[in-house]
């Protein structure tokens, strides 16, 4: 899919999320008896409008989101005004927009999980690294071994072994069938709880290939590729068998750069990006790889109930992820904070690396991000209006002074303008580097 098409789809997703956000405010205001003077798609100047009842429905020239114009937004003396409603009613109207975005994100995530998806399967899982002081090391498992069976059950996909291990009590010895240098080997290994992953493990990292030989002085060697490294992708295409590596290599012309993502044997949790100059050979120049036999893509689909559960789980767990990400945001705001430009770039990289279905995932993240941003208790965002309404509700309806509210809105607006400028600058600065997906 071309970059232009992905960008258009991103803009459409952002536009729809913003319009539905305003539609939430519109419906909530109508149900609360607030007079809505205009519901507009896009930003004025107005192209045309149709009046139905007391509301003008307009289409505007600048295609950026939508807006709702309620009567007396800041003047409680206006009949049926927004400002004239009680604090809890106003809080509900302000909250309606972000809540619609959360619901939209839930629907999109559920749809994403319900779509058929491709998984890589093969005749076992290759060990690319063994964790020190873990049961696999004690059992003598080595990098390059292929795990064929765990507790008598064949393993075909990355998650198969983990599912089997998690179904067994900690410390239990389980039999493994390994393939080493063409010979089958029987061994046993105990399960151990890993507090970092919060699950039972045996202490191995698995893959579909490892580098078995690197010619000294070759471009691969000079680029830093070593025996035991795992080639994950080439030019954005995941590598899982000899056909996939041939296809990826031949996607460039002789003399052009080949971009690799690999996981080095020296640090199995590190990810490296390197480049080689393609010399026209059938495979990567200067190296040989060891493969798992029979690796191929399979199509799978989750049951609808499972997709809905995962969508709801991810939405509910999102605040926890945000809280956990606060230290990273403080430490590296240039990579953690993303605006519309950065979100568009991330969407392009995500779709090109993971396929068209990831558009739904990114659309859900866009909608959820819009909700979270608007929940920030900063005037003039919805969260700022909710904060004012909440304070007045706790004061039993006694309003804050207009001067205090105006000051809060002035400070909040200035802060948001500065934040938008900062995030936009970081988005533009990040464009040449990308997100490294």
Describe the fold and architecture:
With 437 residues, the protein is α+β, with helices and mostly antiparallel strands. It folds into 3 domains: 161 residues, no CATH class; 88 residues, Pdz3 Domain (Roll), CATH 2.30.42.10; 90 residues, Pdz3 Domain, CATH 2.30.42. Strands 4, 5, 6, 7, 8 and 11 form a 6-stranded antiparallel sheet that branches. Strand 7 and strand 8 form a beta hairpin. The radius of gyration is 28 Å and the shape is elongated.
Question: In short, what is this structure?
Answer:
This protein is α+β, with helices and mostly antiparallel strands and 437 residues long.
Mean pLDDT: 88
Largest sheet: 6 strands, antiparallel
Number of helices: 12
**What's the quaternary structure here?**
single chain
Give the structural class: alpha+beta
Q: What proportion of the residues is helical, as a percent range?
A: 40-55%
Q: Any idea how many domains?
A: 3
Poorly predicted parts: none
**Mind telling me the C-alpha Rg?**
28 Å
| Beginning-to-end CA distance, first to last residue | 17 Å
Q: Could you give the order of the helices and strands? A: HEEHEEHEEHEEEEEEHEEHEEEEHHHHHH
Kindly state the number of beta strands. Answer: 18
Relative strand content: 25-35%
Structural shape: elongated
């Amino acid at each position: 899919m071309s970059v232009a098409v992905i960008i258009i789809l991103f803009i459409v997703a952002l536009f729809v999320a913003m319009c539905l956000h305003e539609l939430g405010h519109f419906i909530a205001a109508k149900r609360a008896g607030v007079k809505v003077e205009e519901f507009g798609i896009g930003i004025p100047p107005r192209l045309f409008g149709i009046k139905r009842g007391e509301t003008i429905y307009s289409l505007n020239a600048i295609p950026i989101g939508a807006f709702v114009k309620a009567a007396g937004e800041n003047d409680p003396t206006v009949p049926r005004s927004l400002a004239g409603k009680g604090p809890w009613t106003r809080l509900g109207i302000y909250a309606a927009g972000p809540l619609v975005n959360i619901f939209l994100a839930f629907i999109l995530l559920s749809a994403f999980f319900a779509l058929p998806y491709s998984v890589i399967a093969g005749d076992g899982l290759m060990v690319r690294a063994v964790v020190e002081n873990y049961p696999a090391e004690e059992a003598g498992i080595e990098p390059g071994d292929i795990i064929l069976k765990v507790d008598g059950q064949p393993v075909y996909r990355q998650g198969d072994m983990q599912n089997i291990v998690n179904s067994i009590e900690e410390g239990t010895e389980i039999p493994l069938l390994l393939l080493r240098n063409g010979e089958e080997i029987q061994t046993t290994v105990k399960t151990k709880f890993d507090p970092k992953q919060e699950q039972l493990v045996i202490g191995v990292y698995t893959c579909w290939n490892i580098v078995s030989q690197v010619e000294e002085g070759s471009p691969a060697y000079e680029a830093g590729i070593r025996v035991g490294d795992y080639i994950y992708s080439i030019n954005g295409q995941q590598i899982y068998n000899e056909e996939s590596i041939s296809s990826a290599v031949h996607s460039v012309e002789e003399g052009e750069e080949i971009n690799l993502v690999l996981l080095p044997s020296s640090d199995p949790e590190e990810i490296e990006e390197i480049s080689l100059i393609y010399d026209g050979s059938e495979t990567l120049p200067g190296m040989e790889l060891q493969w798992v036999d029979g690796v191929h893509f399979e199509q799978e689909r989750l049951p609808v109930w499972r997709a809905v559960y995962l969508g709801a789980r991810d939405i509910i767990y999102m605040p926890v992820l945000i809280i956990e990400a606060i230290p990273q945001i403080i430490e590296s705001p240039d990579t953690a904070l993303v605006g519309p430009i950065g979100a568009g770039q991330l969407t392009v990289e995500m779709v090109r690396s993971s396929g068209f279905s990831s558009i739904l995932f990114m659309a859900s993240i866009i909608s959820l991000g819009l909700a979270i941003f608007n929940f920030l208790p900063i005037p003039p965002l919805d969260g700022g209006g909710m904060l004012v309404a909440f304070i007045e509700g706790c004061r039993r309806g006694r309003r804050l002074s207009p001067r205090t509210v105006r000051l809060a809105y002035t400070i909040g607006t200035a802060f948001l303008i500065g934040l938008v400028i900062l995030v936009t600058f970081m988005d533009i600065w990040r464009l040449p580097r990308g997100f490294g997906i």
